């Protein structure tokens, strides 16, 4: 086994056994919980210990709104710098926070099975969106959720909030009547019971990739044992649907404040991709849906997902979506092979592997001292 020297995060003190895999994560309760889950599975698949290395980003320390910081990508930049610098071996991201643009030298090696993609309402007295009192104060930091709340209930007083899940939950019954959060996040810290309403994706599409995780590595990684273990964690159906959702976002070239929801599902080998672009005040929106029959190899299916997503984006733009939100309307051309705009490595199959089985997720992990890395601001939704 290998122990991290707290005085020098880049050094290790060898002991018996294989060197641990260093897994980079943000330090929040949610980030550590989801990284720990991946670490357990990775340790079992690789037959090696995995240690968590915490990395602090500007998004963790700056309390300004996400839009002013450059969008949710601000959480990923410091982690990626640590990976490129060799301070960690793998990263775990919330996929919805990961920019769609390629990052030089990195690739998404694994997409584990997705958790619940829905949003939830947490409200006083068990209220739902329909039963919230007139003028109720509802907190969210997401421009998409602001627009959706306003579209459903124009009378609501929507308040911009930041902070971790526990902080946001604590404001209900304090200065807010309700907050809107991701079901997956609540579930990962065992707080889903706080939800008073689960918001159906049919009328309330969530962020592209919400509920899914992405495991990122260096593109030139040569550790065959690590690569094989990551392939075992990959869940092909999840990779397929999140690729489609993120391709819609990429084709729309959405700015950091663009309120966009997207959902992709597979039913009986039919892929259905839907997306909605909202005006920021929720007064108008445009929706498009397209489907395709899936056939052929894993790569053929991913290529089909990209094509269907492109049709959804094209229809949205043709119907005036660019005038509703902060979009750069370009759907011309297609990404080069192996360099799809849904995300670096996302639209390439990890391998032909059986579905990820959460019931086998056990394995040793340790936690290392926090590593702080400089950040850059990234623009995405």
What does the radius of gyration come to?
20 Å
Specify the biggest β-sheet.
Answer: 7 strands, mixed
The CATH homologous superfamily name of the largest domain equals: Periplasmic binding protein-like II
Task: Choose one word for the global shape.
Answer: globular
Which regions are unreliable across 5 or more consecutive residues at pLDDT < 50?
1-14, 66-72, 329-339, 352-381
How many DSSP helices? Answer: 11
Query: What is the number of E strands?
Result: 17
Q: Per CATH, what is the topology of the largest domain? A: D-Maltodextrin-Binding Protein, domain 2
Question: For this structure, what is the CATH class of the largest domain?
Answer: Alpha Beta
Kindly give the count of domains. Answer: 3
Tell me the distance between the termini: 40 Å
Question: If classified by CATH, what would the architecture of the largest domain be?
Answer: 3-Layer(aba) Sandwich
Beta-strand residue fraction: 15-25%
Structure description:
This protein has 381 residues and is an alpha/beta fold. It has three domains: 1-114 and 213-234 and 350-381, 3-Layer(aba) Sandwich (D-Maltodextrin-Binding Protein, domain 2), CATH 3.40.190.10; 119-199, D-Maltodextrin-Binding Protein, domain 2 (3-Layer(aba) Sandwich); 235-349, 2-Layer Sandwich (Double Stranded RNA Binding Domain), CATH 3.30.160. The chain has eleven helices and 17 strands. The strands form four sheets. Strands 3, 4, 5, 6, 12, 16 and 17 form a seven-stranded mixed β-sheet that branches. The chain has a five-stranded mixed β-sheet with strand order 9-8-10-7-11, with helices on both faces. A three-stranded antiparallel β-sheet has the order 13-14-15. It is globular, with a radius of gyration of 20 Å.
């Amino acid at each position: 086994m290998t122990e991290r020297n707290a005085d020098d995060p880049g050094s290790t003190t060898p002991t018996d056994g294989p060197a641990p895999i260093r897994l980079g994560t943000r330090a929040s309760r949610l980030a550590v919980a989801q990284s720990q889950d991946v670490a357990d599975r990775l340790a079992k698949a690789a037959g090696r210990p995995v240690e968590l290395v915490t990395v602090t980003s500007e998004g963790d320390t700056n309390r300004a709104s996400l839009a002013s910081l450059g969008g949710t990508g601000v959480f990923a930049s410091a982690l990626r710098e640590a990976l490129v610098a060799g301070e960690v071996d793998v990263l775990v991201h919330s996929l919805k926070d990961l920019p769609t643009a390629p990052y030089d030298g990195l690739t998404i090696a694994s997409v584990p099975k997705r958790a619940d993609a829905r949003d939830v309402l947490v409200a006083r007295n068990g209220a739902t969106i329909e039963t919230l009192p007139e003028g109720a104060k509802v907190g969210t930091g997401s421009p998409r959720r602001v627009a959706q709340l306003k579209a459903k209930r124009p009378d609501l007083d929507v308040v911009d909030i930041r902070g971790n899940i526990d902080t946001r939950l604590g404001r209900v019954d304090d200065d807010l009547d309700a907050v809107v959060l991701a079901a997956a996040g609540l579930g990962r810290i065992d707080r889903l019971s706080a939800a008073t309403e689960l918001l159906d994706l049919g009328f309330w599409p969530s962020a592209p990739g919400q509920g899914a995780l992405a495991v990122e590595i260096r593109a030139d990684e040569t550790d065959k044992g690590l690569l094989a273990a990551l392939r075992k964690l990959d869940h092909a159906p999840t990779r397929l649907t999140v690729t489609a959702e993120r391709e819609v976002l990429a084709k729309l070239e959405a700015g950091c404040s663009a309120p966009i929801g997207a959902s992709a599902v597979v039913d009986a080998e039919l892929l259905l991709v839907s997306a909605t672009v909202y005006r920021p005040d929720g007064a108008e929106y445009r929706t498009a849906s397209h489907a395709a029959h899936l056939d052929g190899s894993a790569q053929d299916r991913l290529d089909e997902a990209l094509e269907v997503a492109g049709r959804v984006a094209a229809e949205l733009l043709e119907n005036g979506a660019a005038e509703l939100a902060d979009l750069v309307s370009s759907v011309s051309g297609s990404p080069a092979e192996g360099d799809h705009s849904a995300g670096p490595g996302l639209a390439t199959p990890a391998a032909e592997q059986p579905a990820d089985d959460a019931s086998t997720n056990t394995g040793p992990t340790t936690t290392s001292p926090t590593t702080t890395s400089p950040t850059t601001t990234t623009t995405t939704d």
